[in-house]
Amino acid sequence: MKFLPRIIFSEFTDKILDESYYPIHPLETLKAHLTAAWLLQQPNPDIIAKTEAFISKTTAIIDTDVSRLKKLASETLYWDELKICSAYTNTMGTFLEYKLFLTDHHMQQQVLHFHAGYKFNLGRCFFISETPPLIRVAGDPVLQQPGALYPDNPTLEEQLELSAQIELAKSVLIQTSGAGIAANQCAGIKNPYRFTIVGVFYESVSHVEGVEKRYPGTKFPQAKIMLNPVIISVSKDMQQFNHACLSVPCGNRCAVLSPVEIRVKYKDPLDKMAIKEASYKGIDAVVLWHELTHILDGKTYLDVTFEALSDEQLFKFVTMLDAEIKHRLIDGQLNIPELSVPPFHVSVKINAEGIPQLDSDELAAVLPKMTDETLSGLLGQASDQLKKKYVIESDKPAQITYTSFFSLMESQNSGRDPVRKGFIQAKL
Asked: Which EC class, in a word (predicted)?
């Protein structure tokens, strides 16, 4: 959902200068604070004083927020566009993910990308926090490759870097209510080492409550940090679980088969790098498999799903992703993608024969709740998998015949909308 700042400013200027005015919901608060930043550019001292008073009474971090908006005002020449990417609620509060497009005084276009947090009190909405994105989304090049091996004889600089990466990953895991996280998922880690955190920090009440909301009734293992993990063995028996992922932020779930038992060897960074082995069974093995797939293979659960789907069903998945993107480009986005869960949508199920089956109705229900970045990332990944399976197939009557493929600006894009040349035609 996109807005022109000049229209926002005309709507909110008089409201901000009215001492009795308080915004009542997050989007209104965001627009009002953006207008406040613009008003801080005005030469009128009375307007600036009233604007600072408005900021102070509508934020939980008074000094910080006034300074933040003053800095934004001082660096901005033209206010180009506000884009609301998503909305969600968790144990930390209610959040809006947004991008602000602006032009600075050097005539350089800038894109600011933030998650802003809000709380409600007595029917009023208050700003409480703002952070850059915490999680890499499907299609990000760093997410789609394995983490780097941590050296056996690290330098002091490497030791400090690992400690910082682990602390950041733990913080992100708790804030995002995940049941595990891999280093390459964390947006704040530029060059991730090969480690994962598997499980839940049960000493954190907010983490426990958040995980319960995302996975109702599921008991996960106590969090454990595994550095340079190596899979020693897996069982022949497989189990089914409806996977979700922080890097695919929405209510989508896909049934995926993974080993009932996994034995792993790893270094414990919290125990003087002792080499340990552990066996995980049941749901614990599901979590371990999910995180190892991230950090060892550079894959999300949907990458695994794309590989497992039949050619026809993968093609259907791709065309539905593409149709949703085209719809937004042509008709505009009328609603903000709501990432809060439940409800859940199991878009891929596994039948009695153990074969993944696309549920088009469930996928259609969840696609409007995905952000543009998620849609574009998944389209790139699914299209790449489709290209691996076929270039042109015309001799199999039950297969898909392609007359043209998607042409993507980047085969592993970082969230940009794909550039499509031509179209796909299919014959089943």
From this structure: hydrolase
